[in-house]
Each structure stands twice: as C-alpha cells, then as structure tokens.
Amino acid sequence: MSKNLLIIFTRNPELGKVKTRLSKSIGDENALSIYKTLLKRTEKNVRDLNCDKTVYYSVKIRENDIWDDSIYQKHQQHGLDLGERMQNAFINAFNKKYEKVAIIGSDLFDLNQNHINEAFKSLNKKDFVIGPAHDGGYYLLGMKSLNSHVFKNKDWGTSSVLRDTLADLKGKSVYLLETLNDIDVYDDLINIRAFKKYLI
What we know:
Blueprint (H helix, E strand, L loop, with lengths): L3 E7 L9 H7 L1 H19 L5 E6 L14 E5 L5 H14 L4 E5 L8 H10 L5 E5 L5 E6 L17 H8 L5 E3 L24
Parallel strand pairs: 1-2, 1-4, 2-3, 5-7
Antiparallel strand pairs: 4-6, 5-6
C-alpha cells in the first residue's frame, strides 16, 4: 500500500447525463463520445502512477469497465452536492491512513502524469495543492489532512470556486500547479485537434 492516494471522480457514461452544457451545442451522442474519450485518456494517464488509485462513480460502481479492478479501488460517490461527495471521499482516504490525498476529475484533455507527480511532490513542503482551471474552478485538489472548509459554501461549476477555495486556505501553505482547461462547453473544444470533428 502506498502512502499516497489519487481519487478519480467520474460520471457514469450514459447518454444525456454527461457534459450536459456541451450537449446543448453538439448533441447528446457527440457529448457522450467526447466524455468517453476523456475517460480513456484519464485512465491511460493515471494507470502507471506510483500511488494507490481509487475511482468514485457518480451513480453505480461498474465492473469490467476501463478501470481495471486489479489497479483501481472502486467506490460510489455519496453526498448532496459535489463538495459533500468530495469531502466524504477524502474522509474515507484519511481513515485508511493515507498521508497525501489528491482528487481529480475525468474531463481534462491536457492533464498528464507530470501534473499529478508534481502535486504529490509539492505536499512534501506544502499543506495543500491546487490545479487551477481556466474557467475559475480547479482540476486537482490535494492535502495531507482534512480541511472541511474547502468543501462547503461553494457555487460548484461556477467561476468563483477557485477564488473561494483559496480564500478558505488563506494563511495556509498552498502550491499551485499549471492552469489547465477542462472540457465543459463548446469553446473548450476549439484548440484540441482530436475534437475538431465535433466543431460545427
């Protein structure tokens, strides 16, 4: 067992239930195809990382999917909103005696192993690490002990999340990773060659 845990939050890839903002521009089937591509890319990027890994499913734990049971622990998300679901995942991790815990989503085309390795390394000297997203949210959050404040009183999915989270951590030592772009709306596809076929 590693002392580091990477938590991957995913949505079950079902038609009409993923990338709903994106689907308004390109349709449900195309949005689902893009999300499946992002899931596979995320899995490929994290598979060989030197840490324990656990996948948290939005609705139902899936067996025999892209997340190999021999590599990934599997759980279902629990909570009334994203903050509560993330907090419960961190609580579970720290209860299992992990010393460094980081969480990512599964909709980042540009996320790679270096970002995650840098995140865990930064926690040697810092208490928290955040990967800012261009839309004002974040794509990674890591810590060495539970801080519940960062999960409360947030307008999840809006441009204020990163700012409000940093305000919660004022006076704490925080390491910021490179800012990346997650895939939520049509404009997020424009500069990604792999998604050119979905542009109207």
